[in-house]
Design brief:
The chain is of the alpha+beta class. It has one domain (5-140): Orthogonal Bundle (Multidrug-efflux Transporter Regulator, Chain: A, Domain 2). 51% of the residues lie in helices and 19% in strands. The chain is built from 7 helices and 6 strands, in the order βααββαααββαβα. The chain has a 3-stranded antiparallel β-sheet. Strands 5-4-6 form a 3-stranded antiparallel β-sheet. Helix 3 packs across helix 4 and helix 3 packs across helix 7 (129-140). The longest helix has 15 residues, at 48-62.
Length: 142
């Protein structure tokens, strides 16, 4: 499935992102598609991995994260679990409120820690790209 590429319009339709979001995220180097300089102009194509990145950004922004936290989370996840973006296989992660650091922290999913944080009324946001990947596969019919 990784050898398939999509235009900006197709990527926007598949992921639910706007074309303006795709452009902005490309300009900020958050989601970097393949850009071909051949032909009469620049052609931009998104891979399946890019679609996973776009869907993740859209999910986190929809969950209320600001752009900086969402893009930092995406970068950290690409560094720690690159296989998630290629095959949907890898660890599950979470963002949770760390009282001592007074900020959202990114770490591997720990059910007990997540439940304890929720019991204290603290924020826990799942980062389960395997589910995002599976959803994309279903949308694409694979």
């Amino acid at each position: 499935m990784e050898d398939t590429f999509f235009t900006s319009k197709q990527a926007a339709q598949i992921t639910g992102c706007t074309l303006r979001q795709l452009q902005y995220w490309r300009e900020k180097n958050v989601v970097v598609p393949v850009i071909s300089e051949t032909g009469t102009g620049r052609s931009i194509y998104y891979s399946i991995s890019n679609l996973v990145e776009l869907s993740a950004m859209s999910y986190w922004l929809g969950a209320g994260l600001n752009f900086d936290i969402a893009s930092d989370t995406l970068r950290a996840l690409k560094e720690k679990e690159p296989e998630l973006f290629k095959s949907g296989k890898g660890s599950r992660w979470m963002l949770h409120w760390n009282v001592q650091k007074e900020k959202l922290c990114f770490e591997k999913f720990d059910r007990e820690k997540a439940i304890a944080s929720l019991d204290k009324g603290q924020i826990v946001i799942p980062v389960w790209l395997d589910l995002v990947y599976q959803g994309l596969k279903q949308k694409l019919g694979n």
